[in-house]
Amino acid sequence: MFTKIFLCIILFGIMDAKDNRKDFKYTVNNVLQDPRFTESIILKIKPRRYLIDYMEEACRIAPTRFTNFTATYFPSVPGYLINAINGVAGNYNRDHSFWQILNKGVALVVGVSQYIPRPRDNIMFNLTDSATEHH
User: What would the pLDDT profile of 90-117 be if each residue is shown by its tens digit?
Assistant: First the structure.
């Protein structure tokens, strides 16, 4: 009996160690307007770094897939709103489109200046319109 319990503890410990990833997936997705694209990259977690820092890192690491992004700073929030990714801007006034931030398919309630990614996150910036918005 002791051997079985000990073996289970060792096996679960090994499985847990293999799944102890220190990274997350970052994706940008645009199926609404040209040029359409879906790009992903795995980024290593670093202490006390906000999502906007990882957006910059993706542009440095893979500049042909993550070419650029633009943001507007709002001191009242305080924080940044992402206006465009890879040259594609949302325009809420024109067509109700905006860059929505999702983690594992669920909309984040904070922005790029507040969110600190965690291991195994699956962050997606999805060009969304209010008709297709994820809730």
Answer: 999 999 999 999 999 999 999 999 999 9
What tokens appear for 35 in the block? Answer: 């040029």
- Read off the pTM: 0.81
DSSP codes of every residue in 29-57: EE-SSSSPEEEEEEEE--TT--HHHHHHH
* Cα(88)–Cα(32) distance, integer angstroms: 10
Point out which residues pair with 43 in neighbouring strands: 24
Short-list 84, 98, 85, 105, CA closest to 130: 98
Domain 22-129 is in which class?
A: mainly beta
Which two tokens mark 116? 């600190």
Of the candidates 77, 85, 76, the residue with the CA atom closest to the CA atom of residue 28: 85
Question: What is the DSSP secondary structure assignment for residue 109, as one 8-state letter?
Answer: S
Half-sphere exposure (Cβ direction) of 23: Cα atoms closer than 13 Å: 9
Q: Would you say 134 and 126 are in contact if contact means Cβ atoms under 8 Å apart?
A: yes
